[in-house]
Amino acid sequence: MRIVLAGLATSHPYTDARTLARHAELVVWEPDAERLRRFTDEHPSAKVAQSLAGALGHDPDGVVLTVPNPEVPAALARVLETGAACFVNKPGAATRAQLDALDRLPVHDRVMSTSVLRFAPAFAGVRAAPDDLLAVRATVRHDVGLWATGYNPWQDAPAEGGGTLVTMGVHGVELLVALLGPDVRLAGAARSTRHYGPLRSEDTGVMALRWGGGVLGTVEVLGVSERESYTVTLHRRESTETFSIEGGDDPIRGLGYEGTIDAFLAMVGGAPSPVPWEQTRAVLDVLVSARERA
């Protein structure tokens, strides 16, 4: 089996590769020399391609695509031409123009883009009957202080990577859409900078969501945090239930990276994506709308 790591723009493909290396021959392409060196130091047997076209020329069985958001539509178009299964690391779009460009692509049923938290063991088995719910809440705690130092500036730029509201908010919106489905719209959004003054976006945000059946949802994005954690709260008439997701002793498993790659490898084997593109499109529309509103 041959898997192409097309781009190393965030930390995620490095984590993905640790699982994939147990199952497949790796091919990697990344234009930034330092990021590429970091990868090949850990995976010296990986084949290095000089371009995206060169990487895809290795006849991959699957592709993990991780490029800056403005580059996703064009890169995904090239990947789709191969017919290979593809996992697009989150988020697939951060602006309306990027989302419109994705909408013009012939995305097939072996393309998946999702927050890894959907596959976290602490959440994967959670089910909720909408008729029993009054409201839901997702709280995202993921520190963004590294961006304040100038690291990956495109992620912090609202018009490129969407900033904290999009890049971290995707985790909360993803979890709630996984529970309640894609019939959702943004009802409101707000943002603030409470601690990291140099940021171009924000370090704190909130989104209000409404599903077609009337359930209301809230996503809290806390980019100032001592530790990474995520919670989902279900409010019913007579009870409140909370599920917590943390890395624990094995973050690759605990945060859902391993489960995500297991799902991707099943797609490589011919299975459809377990995350319908309709859900991914709904998540991205909420995030883009929040960026526009805030």
UniProtKB/TrEMBL annotation:
Gene3D superfamilies: Dihydrodipicolinate Reductase, domain 2, NAD(P)-binding Rossmann-like Domain. InterPro entries: GFO_IDH_MocA-like_dom, NAD(P)-bd_dom_sf. This is Gfo/Idh/MocA family oxidoreductase. Residues 133-227 form the GFO/IDH/MocA-like oxidoreductase domain. Pfam families: GFO_IDH_MocA_C3.
